[in-house]
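User: tokens in, sequence out, please.
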């Protein structure tokens, strides 16, 4: 059952770990309210303290970190469980696609409503976009075992 991971799988895993680190950093920033943690790059403090940075009191960054954890779990399970091997790539695609759509909405809010950009948020959005491309490649090229 164990096969050698493809380049797209490895790249997905690495990008997901980077996305998790980015979202964890933003979550820490949200909970500490520490402006200096933005390192003078962009206006992440303004974005991260806006009313759009939470849903019912839950930081968007925390939801992002949880999404990256879910993607990591799916990737990990995909290599170890037949059911996840068969359906994992589609579940990953669905989760990543939802993340890309929501990141696009948040980027729109940064540009048109908040009038400030958070570079760390843009990094996360870019990571999700690359993960989406990799998920599509994997769906097209990596057929699950029969």
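Assistant: Sequence out:
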């Amino acid at each position: 059952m164990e096969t050698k991971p493809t380049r797209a799988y490895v790249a997905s895993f690495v990008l997901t770990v980077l996305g998790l680190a980015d979202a964890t950093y933003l979550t820490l920033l949200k909970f500490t309210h520490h402006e200096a943690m933005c390192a003078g790059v962009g206006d992440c403090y303004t974005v991260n303290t806006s009313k759009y940075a939470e849903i019912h009191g839950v930081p968007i960054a925390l939801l992002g970190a949880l999404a990256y954890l879910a993607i990591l779990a799916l990737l990990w399970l995909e290599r170890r469980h037949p059911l996840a091997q068969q359906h994992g790539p589609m579940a990953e695609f669905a989760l990543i696609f939802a993340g890309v759509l929501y990141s696009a909405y948040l980027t729109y809010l940064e540009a048109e409503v908040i009038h400030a950009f958070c570079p760390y948020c843009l990094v996360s959005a870019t990571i999700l976009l690359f993960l989406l491309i990799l998920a599509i490649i994997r769906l097209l090229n990596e057929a699950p075992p029969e």
